Amino acid sequence: MKDILIVEDGRPERERLEKLFSSAGYAVSGFENVGDAESAIKQEEFRLAILDIGLGDRSGSYLFNLLKRQKRASFVIIFTGNPSVHLKQRFLDEGAVDYIVKGSPQANNEAFLARVKEIIGEPHTQEPVGLPLEEFVDKYVSPSSRQLFLDMNNAFPACSSCGSRKYVVTFAHQPQVPPEISGKVICAGCSKIMDPEIE
To answer: Which superfamily does 2-120 belong to?
Structure first.
């Protein structure tokens, strides 16, 4: 589970929040549109989602409802330029933990960081537990199949989220009967799932 999902189509604001929370030690994924964020939440759960409402490709309300329905974020903060009291009340009634208006005192770095710490506490710094991918490939993957895990330079690809090239293999919590082994390859830095055939 990652710490924070940020969906904000204004690049300066998105980058400000990414830097603010990353510098505080949180694992952050930022996206500028609903489509990219929707792809991310299919693979990852988040402790907190910070959503803009007026996004280019689709309303943030759609993503808010999706996160609630699929339980992909423990908490949601609406982060918008719309100061409507009625809109604020609607989102709070529907389960948002806060409604922060851009440019307000609550949106400044110090106040926003304090609010996030109040909601989810300190960053999760634990590394994923599993077998290092190098060891897994050496011991259990046939030479003809190893290329599935490597890029064109015959190295593990850089994680598209954090840039790390370290991965671990986590196994499903169920009986394993070789040769059918069920597990996932995830980034040791941010826990994003690696798809060897796509990355």
So the answer is: Response regulator (3.40.50.2300)
